[in-house]
UniProtKB/TrEMBL annotation:
One of its GO terms (cellular component) is ribonucleoprotein complex. InterPro entries: KOW, Rib_uL2_dom2, Ribosomal_uL24, Ribosomal_uL24_C, Ribosomal_uL24_CS, Ribosomal_uL24_KOW, Translation_prot_SH3-like_sf. Keywords: Ribonucleoprotein, Ribosomal protein, RNA-binding, rRNA-binding. PANTHER family: MITOCHONDRIAL RIBOSOMAL PROTEIN L24 (PTHR12903). Part of the 50S ribosomal subunit. GO terms for biological process: translation. Pfam families: KOW (PF00467), ribosomal_L24 (PF17136). Belongs to the universal ribosomal protein uL24 family. It comes from Collinsella ihumii. The keyword rRNA-binding applies. One of its GO terms (molecular function) is rRNA binding. This is Large ribosomal subunit protein uL24. NCBIfam families: rplX_bact. It comes from the Bacteria.
């Protein structure tokens, strides 16, 4: 499955309990068709004490949500937009369908 959303992109959540929120993509999971967005789909997870996490306990963290439930925000026009693709020599570019700016 091909995804138009990559790590570091700003996205807007279209559906689910966090509809309307915006955030940055922390991880993209193209094999599963999911993304992890900062501050969205917060879940509680029980963690055992480890070398990095000395205390353990219950930790809040972001869960993966389906990539179809988010829409990329154009850095130029600032609106949530569909993503177009344009070929520039050997490079594939992502473009905004509303204003034509490249990502």
């Amino acid at each position: 499955m091909s995804m138009s959303i990559k790590k570091g992109d700003n996205v807007k959540v279209l559906s689910g309990k966090d509809r309307g929120k915006t955030g940055t993509v922390l991880r993209a999971l193209p094999a599963e068709g999911k993304v992890v967005v900062e501050g969205v789909a917060i879940v509680k997870k029980a963690m055992k004490p480890t070398a990095q996490n000395q205390q353990g306990g219950i930790v809040s963290q972001e869960a993966a949500i389906d990539a179809s439930n988010v829409m990329l925000i154009c850095p130029k026009c600032g609106q949530a937009t569909r993503v177009g693709h344009k070929k520039d020599g050997k490079n594939k570019l992502r473009i905004c369908k509303k204003c034509g700016a490249e990502f």
